[in-house]
C-alpha cells in the first residue's frame, strides 16, 4: 500500500537538559532499574539466596558467643564445642559473603552489557534528525558515565537485600531477648528514616545536574579532539581551553553542591545508629547488675547492635547511589524512549529484481528540515524523473535542495508531502535495509573507519573477496596510491582516515560505494577534495562506473557535471531548467552564474573546461 498522505512533522528529538525535567524523570529512572533487574531475576534471586545464607551465619555468631559465655564460662561447661561452632558459623558466613559479592557484581555486569547493547542498537536505529539535534558527547555520556552509575547501584541490590535481612533478623532476635532494651536501642531508627528520605529528595536533582554538566564537558572534549585540525588551523586552542574551563567549573560547582548535601545529611545517618550502643551499655549494664540479664546476653546484645550499625550507615551510600542510578536511568530511558521517526512498514514491499532497474520519481515533493522555522521549505512541489541507467547532475546555489534530494531517496528523512519512488515503489513502503543497499551515497564529507583500507572498501560487504575490493579500488582510481603504501590494502589508516589526503579518502569512499553494487549511485560532490590534476583519472573511472547505472551527480566542477546525461538546475527548492551541460551553458544565464560563483573568477567553457 503506497503512502501518499502528508507525513507528520518529524520531531527534532533533542534530549532535554536537567532544567527541562519534571519529577517524572525519577520515576522513569526507577522504572528502568526495575525492568532491567527483572531480566536478570534468576541471577539476582541467587544473589539474594546467598545473602540469606550469609545472614544466617552472621546472626548466629553473637548467639553462639552468648551461649558459650553463659554455659561455658558462667556454668563451667566445655568451651571447645562453642568455639568450634562460632568458627564454623564464621566460615559459613564468610563463604556466602564471597558468593553474594560475586553474584552481585556478575549480575550488574550482565545488566550493564545488555543495556549498553540495547542503547547502541537503539541509537543506530534513530533517525537523522535525532543525530542532527544531539551532540556526540551527550550520547556517549549517557552510554558510558550514566551506565556506570546505573551498574554501580545494581551491584548493591543483593548487598542491600542482605543488609535488610541482617536488620530484620537482628531486630527479631533482640526483641526475643529484651523487648524494652531493643526499643531503646532502636529508638533512633525513625530519625534515620526521616533523614534518609530528605537526603534522597535533595540529592536527586543535584546528581542529575552533575551528570548533565558532565555530559556537556564530554561534548567539548569530543569536539575538540575530533576537530583538532580545525582548532589548530585557526589557532583556537585558547578558545577551546576557555570552553573546557567553563564546563569544568560548572561540573565543579554542581559536584560541590552535591557534596554539600552529602556533608549535611551523612553525619547524622552515621551518628544516630551509634546512639543505640550507648543505650545498651548504660541500661543493659543495670539489667546485668540487677540480675535480669546475663553477661552473655549483654555481650550478644552489644554485638547485635554493632551488627546493625554498618547496614544503617550504608543507608546513606545506598541512597546516594540510588539517586545517581535513578538520574542515570532517567537519562538512559530518555534515549531509549525516543521513537525512531523513520521506521519500516508493517508489510514491506520488495523492490523489483527484474527489468530495467533504477528508475527514480519525485512527485510534488515538499520538505523542510525539522524543526521547521521559516515555513518556506527546502523543496517545494518538486517533481523529477530519472530513467534507469540515466545519469543526472543536480546543480544549484547553496541551499537549493541538491543534497536534500539525495537524502530523501534512501529515506534518511521522510517527505512532508508528495512521494519519492524507486522502481515504482514508494520508498516509505520498502524495508530500510533493502532500500539503503539499493542506493549508495558518496558524501562530500568523507568518513572512514579506523581500520585497514581493505576493511573500509569492503564495509558494505565484509565477505567480499580480494578481487572485488581490487576492482572497486581501480574503478575509483584508488589502486595506484594504495599499491604504493608500504602495506598496501592492509594499511591501517587511523582515526577517520586522516593519515591520507582528502582526495585519497574520497577515492576510497567512492570504491566503498562501488563495491556495494547499488542500482542507484549518488555522488554528493564526491570529487571536491580531489586534486584537479588527478580529477581526470577519477572522471574516467566514474564514467565506467556510471555506465548503465542510474546516477545522481551533485557537483560544482564543470568537467564532472559534463559526465552526466542531463543537468537539472535547482533554485530555491524548485527546478528552474533542464538540459545537457552544453545546452544550459549556452542558453541559461542563471546556470552560468551558478557555475561562475562556484568556480570563483574562472569562466567555464562549453566543453566543460576552465
Features:
610 residues; alpha/beta; ABC transporter transmembrane region fold; Rossmann fold; 2 domains; 10 strands; 9% strand; elongated; disordered N terminus
Give the averaged pLDDT, no decimals.
Answer: 81
Number of strands: 10
CATH superfamily of the largest domain: ABC transporter type 1, transmembrane domain
Helical residues, percent: 55-70%
User: What's the overall geometry?
Assistant: elongated
- The CATH class name of the largest domain reads Mainly Alpha
Write out the strand line-up for the largest beta sheet, numbering strands in chain order: 6-7-8-3-9-10
Low-pLDDT runs? 1-11, 601-610
Count every helix, treating DSSP H or I runs of 4 or more residues as helices: 21
Strand fraction equals 5-15%
CATH topology descriptor of the largest domain:
ABC transporter transmembrane region fold
Structural class: alpha/beta
Cα radius of gyration in angstroms: 35 Å
Largest sheet, described in full?
6 strands, mixed
End-to-end separation? 49 Å
Number of domains: 2
